[in-house]
């Protein structure tokens, strides 16, 4: 019996978990508002 399908599914699962962890880290950075340092809102035209 050929187990190729299980290897492929395992690889996809590993990639999915890695991306999930990476994206969770990125969203924490976004929520920390560190990226907003030095930001000034544009003034509205009168």
What key attributes describe this structure?
46 residues, mainly alpha, 61% helix, rod-shaped
Q: How would the blueprint of this fold be written?
A:
Blueprint: H1 4-31
Characterize the structure shown.
With 46 residues, the protein is an all-alpha fold. It is 61% helix and 0% strand. The chain is built from one helix and no strands. The chain has one helix at 4-31. It is rod-shaped and about 75 Å long.
Provide the helix percentage: 55-70%
Strand content: under 5%
Order of helices and strands: H
Roughly how many Å is the radius of gyration? 21 Å
Query: Structural class, please?
Result: mainly alpha
Q: Please, what is the oligomeric state?
A: single chain
Mind describing the biggest β-sheet?
Answer: none
Q: Tell me the overall shape.
A: rod-shaped
* Strand segment count: 0
Secondary structure tally, helices? 1
């Amino acid at each position: 019996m050929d187990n190729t399908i299980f290897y492929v599914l395992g690889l996809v699962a590993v990639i999915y978990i890695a991306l999930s962890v990476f994206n969770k880290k990125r969203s924490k950075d976004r929520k920390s508002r560190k990226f907003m340092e030095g930001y000034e809102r544009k003034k509205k035209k009168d």
